[in-house]
Design a protein that fits this description.
By secondary structure, this protein is α+β, with helices and mostly antiparallel strands. The chain is 20% helix and 34% strand. The chain has helices at residues 4-7, 128-140, 157-175; strands at residues 17-24, 30-34, 41-46, 56-60, 71-76, 86-99, 102-103, 106-111, 149-155. It is globular.
């Protein structure tokens, strides 16, 4: 069986448009993640808090970060995308975050093939409440596990593109 982290392309138009592989649909409490060995999806845990993922969540294939995982991506769409679906995603920004004291960036993108969001080109075009909701979710979703997450800042598309490019370079150094 092919592992989607390694067998799916990052995307021909990266770092502007990438393939995002969904692990967790929006509006769920299930924390699924890719099993790096088998390439299958596993249930990591059910969130301890009564909160739900505010966006479709997954990773960008053929990327690698300091946390030894592929680069995380939040893909905005009007629908809940099923796990392991490949979504063509237009990069619009990044949420800089510390998880347990380690850098854990979350790329923010819109589903390229969803007409309700694909007109958005940068996070500046998102409503202010969206940032409050994301910050609240990520700073609270591990509190009942006695773990600390700190959202540092939201940055624009250009910074996000640089992070994507670095994660591709890091992947190539690690795996090629």
């Amino acid at each position: 069986m092919n592992n989607p982290w390694h067998s799916v392309e990052v995307g021909k138009s990266s770092p502007d448009i990438v393939n995002g592989i969904i692990e967790i649909p929006k509006n769920t409490r299930a924390k699924y993640e890719l099993d790096k060995e088998s390439g299958l999806l596993k249930l990591d845990r059910v969130l301890y808090a009564s909160i739900y993922y505010p966006a479709n969540y997954g990773f960008i294939p053929q990327t690698y970060c300091d946390d030894q995982d592929p680069l995380d991506i939040l893909i905005l769409s009007q629908i809940n995308v099923v796990p392991m679906c490949i979504v063509s995603a237009k990069i619009i920004g990044v949420m800089r975050m510390l998880d347990g004291g380690e850098l854990d960036d979350k790329i923010i993108a819109v589903a390229e093939n969803d007409m309700s969001v694909n007109h958005i080109d940068d996070i500046d075009h998102l409503p202010a409440h969206f940032f409050k909701e994301l910050r609240n979710f990520f700073e609270d979703y591990k509190k009942l596990e006695n773990k600390t997450v700190k959202v540092e800042e939201f940055q624009n598309r250009e910074i996000a593109r640089e992070i994507v490019l670095k994660s591709i370079d890091d992947y190539n150094l690690k795996f090629r």
